[in-house]
Amino acid sequence: MFTRTAALRRAQRVAVRGFSTSSVAYESSVRAGVLLQRDPIVTQPAGKFEEATDRYFDWLQFISADRFPRDFFFKKGSTAESKWMDQEDIRAGEWFFDATSKPVVKSVKRVIHEDDMIEKSETSKPIVINSRETEADATGNEQSLERKLDRTLYLVVKGAQGEWTLPQGKVNDEELLHEAARRNLKEMCGGKMSVWMVGNGPVGHSKSGEASTFYIKGHILAGQAKANEELASEFKWITREEVEKTVSAEYWLAVKDMLSTI
Amino acid sequence: MLGTVSRHVAALRPGVSRGFSTGPALGYQARLSQYYHNTLRDDLMILQYVPPQVRARQEVMEEARLKAIKENVGGTPPNPLRKRLKVRPPKPRVAESAAHNTPYVDKVTVHIRCREALQNKHNLLSALMTLQVVTGQRAEVIKAKNDAAPWKLRKGMPIGAKVELTGDRMYEFLDKLVEVVLPRMKEYSGLPMDSGDGMGSFTLGFDNSAIGLFPEMEMVYDMFPMVFGFAVNIKTTAGHNPAGRLLLSGLNMPFVHARKPTTESFML
How close is the nearest chain A Cα to the Cα of B59, in Å? Predict the structure, then answer.
């Protein structure tokens, strides 16, 4: 859709040169920016409601399921079979409707406690789940890409005037919008990032005075930003809510619809 | 073997014990489902966006093309003796790119054609169990719709098994297929670029060596008297192949060009 062949681009450049009326550098009122995001790394945590619903439906599925073909999977009298039967007894002991109507389960042979299970089976060690909070969360390091793993983070930079914006800059003559966006990102935040840009068309725009800035979306795949002292004094990777607190109210209105709530 | 993980989870977290759960703990939503809804969908919408001016121009060109076909300008005149028995219905217009009609994976069907079931119906049991183990859902028996004398097949005989997956189970299955099974296959480079049914749905076929690569099958592989190849049909709402490819490659499905590499084409 936005792809152009090299030949077409060359022809355009020639046309621009041919028709330009003067050699004075033309200051474009169009600026190009990049909406660079880091995607969520871990899944969303389940809320209490989701957890309860999930557990209930799982249980409904269990009690209404077809019988497990024990004869097919286990040899008669094997260890695996007796293990499975123990497991089945625990499962059968669960009852999610009101406690008064719980049926008496006769098949429970013995109750397995947590302690003796861990002692007996060396092969199946308990699974320790890593924390969702990382070191960057604990120290409040907003430049780290390893913070807020379940959220989308956006790159914002502090400009020369001390205002926080998405990385952006001028569009030069004979330059296409997406080329300018890429160049500006590289100039402002260094070339040590591997970035995939989503198409060549803008996803949103903001206005300040005469100039309009068009933003092209991108994903960071590897590397890290490094602020260029001349153009940007600082950078941050922050979530939507943090963007709202960081940027000016006017700028927030322009960019808020581009940012993901997750 | 089965359910050891959930047992530990039950022991570790008494508040959220899932002792009855026979499958992996799903949590709130499947990983791939979350990825689609939170990240991929937005990108698909952006990539498929056509500006209104360009769209209007495309529509004018399309109308002119259809008109030319109708009036048969410059083409061979239609054969008056030949009558079209079936009039192909016109393809639906590709929907405008917007949040509500971004393509998504609608349904995944996994099926096994079991020719051995003709000799002995019990052979079908292996196919049914395989599908159940791999997808976590009860498989249905497919019965023959027609007679086929050369194969000694009569109408109504059981000939295969299938599972239709939707929702979280579907995403779980796709996730396993793309992240575990396909990378483990030695000679699989990807779906050819010209695959697809023209409406954005894709079918992948695998031989019987692939079924053992599913993590659930690894543990119980020896217990199956027969293993079969299987076919996976991925139905999307894309409407045309390029959009379907875009969606599936976003879900990490590999695609390859059918064209031979240049070095080979120059060899004698």
Answer: 15
Using CB atoms within 10 Å of the CB of residue B55, give its burial: 0 to 12 exposed, 13 to 18 middle, 19+ buried.
middle
Task: Tell which of B5, B7, B140 to mutate to test the A interface (max A CBs under 10 Å).
Answer: B7
Between the CA atoms of A54, A57, A58 and A62, what dihedral angle is there, to the nearest 10 degrees?
170
Which one of A70, A71, A102, A198 would you mutate to disrupt binding with B, by most B Cβ within 10 Å of its Cβ? A198
Are residues A164 and A91 part of one domain?
no
Whether the per-residue pLDDT at A116 is higher than 70: the answer is no
Phi then psi for B149, rounded to 5 degrees?
A: -60, -45
Q: How far apart are CA A110 and CA A86, in angstroms?
A: 7
Domain contains A126: no
Same domain (yes/no): A35, A145: yes
pTM here is 0.78
**Residues of B with Cβ-Cβ distance to A203 under 8 angstroms:** 46
For residue A183, name the pLDDT band (cuts at 50, 70, 90): very high
Confidence tier at B237 by pLDDT (50, 70, 90): very high
Q: With contacts defined as CB-CB under 8 Å, which chain B residues touch A114?
A: 11-12
- What pLDDT digit, counting tens, does each position of B49-74 carry? 988 899 899 889 988 888 887 776 66
- Residue A190, domain extent: 6-43+133-258
Contacts B11 to A, Cβ<8 Å: 114, 117-118, 126
**Cβ–Cβ below 8 Å for B11 and A58:** no
Chain B residues with CB under 8 Å of A66 CB are 138
Q: What is the pLDDT of residues B211-234, one digit of tens each?
A: 999 998 988 888 899 999 999 999
Largest pairwise CA distance in chain B: 78
What pLDDT does A105 receive? 55
Q: Is residue B81 pLDDT above 60, yes or no?
A: yes
- Which of B20, B38, B47 lies at the smallest CB-CB distance from A58? B20
- Nearest chain B Cα to A83, which residue? B1
B250 — pLDDT class (breaks 50, 70, 90): very high
How far CA B181 is from CA of A149, B168, B209, B210, B234, in Å, comes to 27, 19, 11, 7, 16
CA dihedral B187, B190, B195, B197 (to 10 degrees): 110
Does residue A78 share a domain with residue A202? no
Q: Which of A59, A83, A203 sits opposite B20 (nearest CB)?
A: A59
Please give the CATH topology (third level) of the domain spanning B102-258. Answer: 50s Ribosomal Protein L5; Chain: A, (3.30.1440)
Instruction: Evaluate whether residue A247 is within a structural domain.
Output: yes
Mean pLDDT in residue range A144-165: 93
CA distance B80 to chain A (A): 41
Average pLDDT for residues B126-143, to the nearest whole number?
92
pLDDT mean across residues, chain A: 81
ipTM surpasses cut 0.85: no
On chain A, the residues whose CB falls within 8 A of the CB of B16 are 51, 55
Higher-confidence position of A69 and B46: B46
